[in-house]
Amino acid sequence: MMSPLERMIKRLRDDLNGRLLSFGELVKVSEEENAPFGEAVVAEAIVREKKSEEEILNLALATFQHNFEALEVGLTSGRSFLLGTVGTDLANKERALIDDELINNAVTYTLATEVGNHEIGLQPCAGTGDSCPYTGLLHAFRQAGVPEKKLAHAAAIMLKLGSFFRVGKKTTGCNMEGFGAGAAATAAALTDMRGGTARQVARAVVLALSPTIAVPCTPRVMVHGLCAAHIGGAILIGNLASNLVLETSLPVDVDIDVMLAMAARIHMEAAPIITSINLEYLEPYFAKKPQIEPYVDGEIRAREKESAETIQVRAREEVRNMLKEARPLTGVLGDVVVGGSSMAVGSPANMARICHAMTAGTISSIEIDLTADLFSRRAINVPAILMAAIYGTPTGDADMYKRVLDLPELKHIQIKINKIEEPQVQRIRIEASEKSAMIDARNRGGGRVAIVQAEPSLQEALNAAKRLGIEVAQ
Questions:
Q1: Span 18-27, average pLDDT
Q2: Nearest alpha carbon to residue 168 among 344, 349, 311, 332
Q3: What domains sit in the chain, N to C, each tagged with a CATH number?
Q4: pTM for this prediction
Q5: Alpha-carbon distances, residue 394 vs 118, 141, 218, 318 (angstroms)
Q6: What is the mean pLDDT of the chain?
């Protein structure tokens, strides 16, 4: 008799046939096979990546290795320019912040990971923000004695959710990163670890996402302390959502794909229309009073009924479309990014690396154009841009990042930084004695780059990105 994992592998091989499953559809497979959701995630990865169960489990944990190292730095010696020594403060504190050892440790390790991020960088998912709760919770599980196989299942669940957020994050916003993605992944991993069903995992994710929708990160990314409430809050909200689903009869009937699709879309829209989008996706789930409905025009009620019948189908398609750009499970995390943000630092720095690869000879000038959001964070992204433009240095070189502004070579290069009002723009021109180059790009999360135009040619830029292993986004 086949095990649940074997049955799911066979079913996915027979049914998948190149088709992408939405999160909700994978939940349904797990439910129908009466298997833990973590096993369904692993089964899908086995089929899609053509690897063995052992390989998937080992790689799911191994992908966090650098982030565990950053966590250790944050716990022992790290000092963040935004969070100070909060990691060591909490590690040395005799009295817990939270009367739940697992959750208290997860919050401590999450904040320590962010401190370590500002020292040696992190491998980002949607960004570096959501990698903090992922890493913190995994380390808390390990310290609690969770077996390695169950630990790997938890890692796989968080990476699976992270893959959606990595694609969905196209502008600044903690709702699709440290707060939103972190809370959703925490809720999913905790619910599965506590013996919840796949349906309970989905409901916990919906609950955890709800308070994070449309939460921005721009006001807090360069302000002391505030990020701690975002990423620490992700653990707390994820834990709350998990316990509400597992321990109460709280009704949660919003479909998970509707919630994921809505979160991704609201992330990109301006505040004035957030309410209209919310209604578009969730009005079918609003409670109605039978006594009031007769007073509403019949055509309006008919349209609402039609919307209720079609929204799930549409939402599933939107979620599947996100997967078309997603990396495979064990390749979700990008290269290490030093400086505190894979979007504000990693993306413009990788743009500069591509431009450097197209130049030849002695560099005489560098001109950098940054959209207002990136320009305001020039203290953290310009060092990475310059080390990439002048030396082609990767985004994870912490030593070069710390000393590049003091190197004598800079005295012989004319450098200019411009503020651009157009959203998402990041542009660089490098003048050199033998061959100059230019890239006009758009900012993307996870260290990705969307290249719009390049000189000598767009194709040469794309070829350079491929050689360097830099992900080019839409």
A1: 90
A2: 332
A3: 23-323 (1.10.4100), 342-468 (3.30.1330)
A4: 0.79
A5: 16, 32, 25, 34
A6: 91
